[in-house]
């Protein structure tokens, strides 16, 4: 055993400060709360209990990286036809800050959508039915939100805000909060899995960092586990050649025994996380091969999702895998689809993007519905912000570009306790400002937590002396009109 002096010398600064915090305030906290507060991030911390019965037990979040153009897909603005190539009025822009990509433009000419729109379903949702004919069939099952807004105007902080509730990195993402709050369903699979789909058009992709599925200050076991589209789904998931399972088991037992000794000496909570990760990796050796073998799916499944579902790494393959994951008890599946950053050549890129996602999104909802899973599975679709009505770069009646626009954008949800056929929120004729029922991303997060069974104001985690929460310190509100 290491003596006390060595133990003190080996402590990190964070561990020392954590220990000091407990020495100074532990007695008072124990007296007030009836128990000693654990170290920040400890995997031994008791999982919180839902505040009420969850409507959604699992989540599939489909994030369109780059920011889809709301006025070309869901936010129909017929009056813009009369504004073609006219200057965006100052009364509409209202001094909004611009990105460096368009701030130097001499003009901000209006670019009406080149696409035709049709009303769909009993709800009457206007959609680009030419590019999204499959999804249009599900309009009455979808809860449409046309008034999302955020403060972030560039990709990295905007995606961070959408995923973690804060533009600054280092916070837990939504999937990690779900894992922390509800725990795992299947002990042989992670609670939180990430899939990164490869778009058919790769003209202008954004970087996707593993920070987006980080557990932040939560215990590391709540971080997302990224499944690869090619080769082994998880690196080193299989035994090395010549190493049978019994030797692998004995090796892990030996490593875990050493880690337990290390934990007793240093009390580093990350050591317990490491032990759990070794155990999970061993259990996944048996469960992952069956999970990722889509050849077991009947042919009618591939007819539903489309032929692309058979190709590893496509969006269709990823959403089919997402269904297989939640079917086997994964709590939260995050799917990223890139190349929605349409600064130019909208007509050359948007059709291929929609073709990637249209039939698979329809198929996912239909598949979950047929299996009786949609009522308890929340499906989310959207990007980190919207696009501008004015063009970036050259303008013609059949092509243009659009810059980032955080003031209003469209997202949708389905299943999991949401109210299908709802159309919530309105924007002005330019799809530039919200005129009715705004939904800040914190309100969006509060509503998702409500569906998962948590009051967002009471769903907290003690870190650095504060009760941290996904929705932050600014007021946030659940949107009851979105709930069934």
Kindly describe this structure.
The protein is α/β, with parallel strands linked by helices and 484 residues long. The chain folds into two domains: 17-45, no CATH class; 47-229 and 298-482, Alkaline Phosphatase, subunit A (3-Layer(aba) Sandwich), CATH 3.40.720.10. It is built from 13 helices and 17 strands. Strands 1, 4, 5, 6, 7, 8, 11, 12 and 15 form a nine-stranded mixed sheet that branches. Strand 2 and strand 3 form a beta hairpin. Helix 8 runs antiparallel to helix 9 (269-292) and helix 11 (315-327) packs parallel to helix 12. The chain is globular and about 75 Å long. It starts with a helix and ends in a 16-residue tail after the last strand.
Tags for this model:
484 residues; alpha/beta; Alkaline Phosphatase, subunit A; 2 domains; 9-stranded mixed sheet; two-stranded antiparallel ribbon; 13 helices; 17 strands; globular
Topology:
Elements (H helix, E strand, L loop, with lengths): L3 H7 L2 H21 L24 E7 L5 H4 L16 H4 L24 E3 L4 E3 L5 H4 L5 E8 L5 H10 L9 H9 L9 E6 L27 E3 L17 H22 L2 H24 L6 H7 L9 H13 L4 E6 L8 H25 L6 E6 L3 E6 L10 E4 L3 E6 L8 E2 L1 E2 L6 E3 L2 E2 H11 L9 E3 L2 E3 L16
Parallel strand pairs: 1-7, 1-8, 4-12, 4-15, 5-6, 5-7
Antiparallel strand pairs: 2-3, 4-11, 8-11, 9-10, 13-14, 16-17
Helix pairs in contact: 8-9, 11-12
């Amino acid at each position: 055993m290491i003596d006390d002096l060595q133990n003190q010398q080996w402590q990190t600064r964070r561990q020392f400060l954590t220990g000091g915090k407990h020495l100074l305030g532990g007695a008072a906290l124990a007296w007030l709360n009836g128990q000693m507060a654990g170290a920040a991030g400890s995997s031994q911390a008791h999982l919180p209990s839902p505040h009420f019965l969850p409507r959604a037990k699992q989540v599939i979040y489909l994030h369109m990286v780059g920011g889809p153009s709301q006025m070309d897909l869901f936010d129909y603005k017929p009056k813009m036809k009369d504004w073609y190539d006219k200057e965006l009025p100052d009364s509409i822009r209202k001094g909004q800050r611009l990105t460096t990509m368009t701030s130097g433009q001499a003009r901000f000419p209006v670019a009406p959508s080149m696409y035709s729109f049709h009303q769909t379903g009993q709800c009457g949702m206007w959609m680009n039915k030419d590019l999204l004919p499959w999804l249009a069939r599900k309009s009455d099952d979808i809860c449409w939100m046309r008034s999302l807004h955020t403060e972030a105007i560039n990709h990295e902080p905007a995606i961070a805000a959408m995923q973690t509730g804060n533009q600054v990195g280092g916070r837990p993402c939504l999937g990690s909060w779900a894992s922390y709050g509800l725990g795992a369903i299947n002990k042989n699979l992670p609670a939180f899995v990430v899939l990164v789909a490869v778009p058919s058009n790769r003209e202008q992709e954004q970087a996707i960092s593993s920070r987006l599925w980080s557990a932040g200050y939560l215990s590391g076991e709540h971080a997302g586990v990224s499944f690869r589209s090619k080769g082994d789904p998880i690196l080193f998931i299989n035994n090395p050649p010549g190493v049978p399972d019994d030797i692998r088991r004995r090796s892990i037992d030996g490593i875990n025994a050493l880690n337990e000794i290390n934990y007793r000496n240093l009390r580093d909570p990350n050591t317990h996380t490491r032990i759990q990760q070794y155990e999970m990796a061993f259990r996944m050796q048996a469960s992952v091969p069956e999970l990722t073998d889509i050849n077991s799916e009947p042919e009618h499944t591939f007819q539903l999702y489309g032929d692309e579902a058979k190709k590893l790494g496509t969006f269709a393959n990823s959403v089919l895998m997402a269904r297989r994951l939640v079917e086997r008890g994964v709590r939260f599946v995050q799917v990223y689809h890139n190349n929605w950053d349409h600064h130019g050549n909208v007509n050359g890129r948007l059709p291929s993007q929609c073709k990637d996602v249209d039939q698979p999104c329809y198929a996912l909802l239909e598949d979950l519905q047929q299996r009786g899973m949609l009522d308890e599975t929340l499906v989310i679709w959207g990007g980190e912000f919207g696009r501008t009505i004015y063009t970036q770069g050259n303008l013609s009646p059949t092509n243009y570009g659009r810059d980032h626009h955080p003031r209003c954008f469209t997202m949708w949800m389905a299943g999991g306790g949401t109210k299908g056929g709802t159309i919530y929120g309105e924007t002005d004729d330019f799809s530039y400002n919200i005129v009715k029922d705004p939904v800040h991303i914190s309100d969006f997060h509060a509503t998702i937590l409500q569906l998962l069974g948590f009051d967002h104001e009471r769903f907290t985690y003690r870190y650095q002396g504060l009760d941290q929460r996904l929705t932050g310190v600014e007021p946030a509100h659940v949107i009851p009109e979105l709930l069934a």
